Amino acid sequence: MSASREKQNRQAQPGQAGPKTAREAQQRKEQKRSNLLYGLIAAAFLIVVILSAVWRTNLIPKMAPAASIDGQNYNAGEISYYYQSAYRNFVNNYSYFVSYLGLDTSLPLKGQEISQETALMLGIDTGDAGEETPAGDEDAAAPAEGEDGETPAEGEDAAAPEDTGTGMTWHEYFLDQALNNMATIQAGLKAAEAEGYAFSDSIQAQHDETMDSLRSAAAASGVSVSQYLSASFGGGITEKIYSDQLLRTLRYSDYSTAYVNSLQYSDSDLKAVYDGDPNTYDHVSYETVSFSGAAESTTDEDGNTVEPTEEESAAALDAANEKAAAVVAAIQEGGNPETLADEHEGTYNKTESGSYTAGSALSEWLYNPAREPGEAAVVTDGTNLYAVVFHERFRDEYNTVNVRHILIGKGTATLSEEDEGYAEEQEKLTADAHAKAEEVLAQWQSGEATEDSFAALALTESTDPGSRFNGGLYQRVYEGQMVETFNDWCFDASRKSGDTGLVDTDYGTHVMYYVGTDLPRWQAQTAQVLENEDYTEWETALTANTNIERHDFGMKFVG
């Protein structure tokens, strides 16, 4: 075979290449590896840029575990949902007492320490401030009352507690509240699942309506839901987090309410509570003619106030005592207290259903078991002198009632009270609400006309947020609890189960359904005491062995 033929054969065989072809192939491979390498480097750089941008938004850190409850991880956004809820509930509940308690809502909570006095008033245990959180719900007590049994009135300056630190900040306090509430909800939902508990159908409706309101509020503000939540609650709370935790909260509330409704007590159980503290449940009827025994201050030539001397104060007290004694003597002779008040320049007061006030000399006298109807005496309470006549001590034996209602709220007014035409507009709004209520009542009457169908209609038609998702139900309503027209309808002596009607109030028109009577008022009060005790014990047991662990890195982003 010739050399040229052999060369041709080598070139024609697959897998074989000449020097030039091999070099070209090798170059193409090297270029391909180079392009791949640069592509990977570029992709890696892009990922770093993206991660860096995301990191600067704190999205990744806030999604990192911030706490674990029995092994279940929660990120900062989820914890912040409960943290902000605890904080807002506290501010709403204590209103103008917030500054008195030493909490400045305009400053970061992490830099504000709780004083010893505030901790005592709120029942805060600061022994483990900043350490691992024990599970359990902490109920804050109301601020302590003053010596006269009254708390500072709104608008008055209240002296702040002495600034003695506890080592616990307000941030730590609300964080404890959040984690404890989360532990309770987690344990409660786990128990509900184990029992096969069927949650109320209204839960989803309440959840969806709340989410719709959230989206509407965000849209009205011209921002996204996430932006709205970030501005309202702080970063980290996404729409999904808000939705998920809202649903968990509603489900736990439904489950715990069902537990309370399942509690039953015997008459002897209720009487035992009453016998343990009858003053709390009893009322007294009495009349008083009061006199001030305080000496008046005077003004000197320079206009300065001159406080009365001890002798002047004693003389004023003696004078008031003499007047009160004279009134008592006349009452014992059959005199009329109101007439005697005019004759002796005293202040007359008649109380039909008074309540006990601890520390009050007048209350102590009235609630003394030795009191007899018609008994009169002079009672000294500080610088006040009372000529008091006792009539009766009693407890509320009337039955509380259970009612359902559908509130048809009045439309939004466009005028203020000072504007011309305000009264006419209000009349129109009331008339419109009443007309709509008539339609709703007619709709119910044309259907099954049962309590269940009324409850279903309340879910779709009522504007009362306090009862709408409970079928419009109010249980153990007591006299004076509701506005006058609502109250009068409920406690009409002719009322019977199944009665319906319309009641106009300042809120709109109520479509009423009378369910029936419940426990006598005093028993309803004692039952509430037992329910609170049993609920606390039940809820404490849910988290008895719960372990809460905080993760320092994620915790930095809570609040």
List keywords for this structure.
559 residues; alpha+beta; 4-stranded antiparallel beta sheet; 15 strands; 17% strand; globular; disordered N terminus
Description:
The chain contains 19 helices and 15 strands. Helix 6 crosses helix 9, helix 7 crosses helix 8 and helix 7 runs antiparallel to helix 9. Strand 13 and strand 14 form a beta hairpin. The longest helix is centred in the first third of the chain and has 38 residues. The chain has a four-stranded antiparallel sheet with strand order 8-5-10-9. A four-stranded antiparallel sheet has the order 12-11-14-13. A three-stranded antiparallel sheet has the order 2-1-15. The chain starts with a helix and ends with a helix. The chain is α+β, with helices and mostly antiparallel strands.
List the helices and strands and how they pair.
Elements: H1 3-12, H2 19-56, H3 59-63, E1 65-69, E2 72-75, H4 76-94, E3 113-115, H5 116-122, E4 165-169, H6 170-195, H7 202-220, H8 225-233, H9 239-262, H10 267-276, H11 278-281, E5 282-292, E6 298-299, E7 305-306, H12 310-332, H13 337-343, E8 347-354, H14 361-366, E9 376-381, E10 384-395, E11 399-409, H15 422-446, H16 451-461, E12 473-477, H17 484-490, E13 500-505, E14 508-520, H18 521-542, E15 548-550, H19 552-555
Antiparallel strand pairs: 1-2, 1-15, 3-4, 5-8, 5-10, 6-7, 9-10, 11-12, 11-14, 13-14
Helix pairs in contact: 4-6, 6-9, 7-8, 7-9, 10-18
